[in-house]
Input
Amino acid sequence: MSIMKIQREKCDLPSRDDWTALRILLGGMLGMMVAMGIGRFVFTPVLPLMQRDLGMTHSVAGWLASLNYLGYLLGAIACSFSPRIIRNQFVAGSSLLLSLATTIFMAGTTSVFWWGGMRFTAGFVSAILFIVIVAEVNEALTRQGESHWVGTLYGGIGLGIVLSGLLVPQLDKLGGWGSAWIGMGVVASTLALAGVLLGRKKEFIPPVTIHKTNSEFSIKKLWVLALAYFFEGFGYIVSATFIVAIIAVTPGLERFAPYSWVAVGVAAALSTVFWPFVARRTSYKNALMWAYVIQATGIAISIYADTIFEVFFAAIAFGGTFLGIVALTLVEGTRRTGGKGKTAAILTTCFGIGQVLGPIIAGILADFKAGFTLPLFIAAISVGLGAVCTIFDMEFKK
Output
């Protein structure tokens, strides 16, 4: 045995395989920052700027958001029906380039038609990138016996949200809404390059062997979990789309609007570690139930929030739960079926259906009722139904 190997065993230093898994995890987190934190969710802090500079209505904003989520839904369905997409490097690379392009070129037009096309495309490729990244990182961590850390991957979404919340107000000072889109596209391009260099496989790594199960039986095990995830998609997306815009028109709180999005991102990044920890110490069922309850409470409080404390409580309650619910649901779904990529695609499809419906209904109601009281009330009820589904889901481990 070599001296170096003896010293490594004595010091319990990470092996080469450990560093490979960590490198892939960090690359995956950067990918999540680009595809999800910026590619999908940067619309939220930029939206008030577009409404200020261009007079965009809540209905138009809701339709643009829903087109993004419709694209996300169809991307997830495509991965579900054609799992080979998940392993196709050309598809993954093209999706990444389209994600970057549709962020930058949002500033190149004021046509609602072209905005809609770009937000739809951004949603479609973000779903593919999300599922590809989940599958790749999940396999790498499972191979090292560290699958419980897979929830950390979703923290990249929160970090992307934090970054956009910090940078958009500064970019706004340079040239308004257009500068915000271009600047965030440039930042996303830099992060994407770093993510590709970190996450790419430098050597052949054999795939994890997954024993086949009865697919019909496995899918039946998912339906209540997927229903709860649908309600989450419908409810959380109202806050995800409009929270900054709501605060921006609240008298006395306007200047705190962009920083509420930073609070959402920080809480979201931390939640991906916190909720899996709670699940391991108690159970996945208890963790999911409380995450739903806290999120519903935060949305309910945001209906009449008119103080800094209430606003930031609502932001933290939302940010601190929605990615935790994503992480817990996907891990629990994988446990039930054993099919990582396909399970993520099926659950993401249900989630996506809720996301498509939420902003359209919320935007129309907000314009019709001249405010977000009713949309937020419906959103809180929807997330509460997610908690009810979780309570009555008998497929959780005892």
